[in-house]
Amino acid sequence: MKTKAKLLLENVKKSLAKKIVRSCLRFDEVTITIKADETIDVLKILKDKPEFHFKQLIDLCGVDYLEFPEEQVNERRFAVVYHLLSLKNNQRIRVKVFLENNEFPILPTVISLWPVADWYEREAFDLLGIMFLNHPDLRRILTDYGFIGHPFRKDFPMIGKVEMRYDPSQKRVIYEPVSIEQRNNVPRIIRDEGFHNG
Length: 198
Description:
Elements: H1 4-16, E1 20-26, E2 29-34, H2 39-48, E3 56-64, E4 78-86, E5 91-98, E6 106-108, H3 117-128, E7 131-133, E8 162-167, E9 172-177
Parallel strand pairs: 2-5, 6-7
Antiparallel strand pairs: 1-2, 3-4, 4-5, 8-9
């Protein structure tokens, strides 16, 4: 007997055919990978077709696959992942889109389909540097306005570059070079070998 997830995957493959680059069913969850230039078309079909009815965008996140080349598609580093929910059909689907340009990752905004995407896209921009074309207010949401870089990129320095603190004498926030003391984070191993009591 086919599960709901297997039937969903079959229906998605029939409806989207050549638009799907890769698909899988793991842990009873459907994931499809699509081409970047098909993003709006595919998501609109998944939202509007009655057999799918994915009216809710649960989450949208950016992913940096720099250190996971086996997950990449054609050596593309960045992906945007959409998590969709159909309350009517009690189903979920994950849609993954690999971005064409590793130097300037860009994808059209989906705010016209799901207004809730606004802050999700701002977060992906802020933390990974993914641009969303025609987003009405694409600015940082979690880091400070003057922050340089994107902290969720795999090549971002682990300790950052500057730190900010409130200076009571200047009565404002100031930036300074990072002042972290180097520490040995390797745990010390204690062994019983060679120690005798008595």
